[in-house]
Write a structure and sequence with these properties.
This protein has 97 residues and is an alpha+beta fold. It is built from four helices and six strands. The strands form two sheets. The chain has a four-stranded antiparallel beta sheet.
């Protein structure tokens, strides 16, 4: 079994993801081989909240150039976690607003 720290890699802090904080939606970069159940359990364990649902998105690598040569950035996986109404918010994101 994987540890919660191995599943949740980092929070994604963009203008679009911060709009979801008011709707109790938080965005994380997660391990590519993790599923929705593992992600929900990891968020509940790390932050002490109650998860309502999890939406996942596979993000393909983007083409980047350096001079003449070009290559692709690594593909990643994002998870948008929605919390239950009676759950407290995640303090890390609350400080950003």
């Amino acid at each position: 079994m994987k540890l919660a720290q191995d599943i949740i890699i980092k929070p994604i802090i963009t203008e679009n993801s911060m709009k979801g904080v008011s709707e109790r939606k938080y965005t994380f970069q997660v391990a590519k081989d993790s599923n929705k159940i593992e992600i929900a359990k990891a968020v509940e364990e790390l932050f002490g909240v109650k998860v309502s649902k999890v939406n996942t998105i596979n993000v393909r690598g983007r083409f980047r150039r350096q001079g003449i040569k070009g290559g692709y950035t690594p593909a990643t996986k994002k998870a948008i976690v929605t919390l239950k109404a009676d759950s407290k918010g995640i303090e890390f994101f609350e400080g950003m607003n």
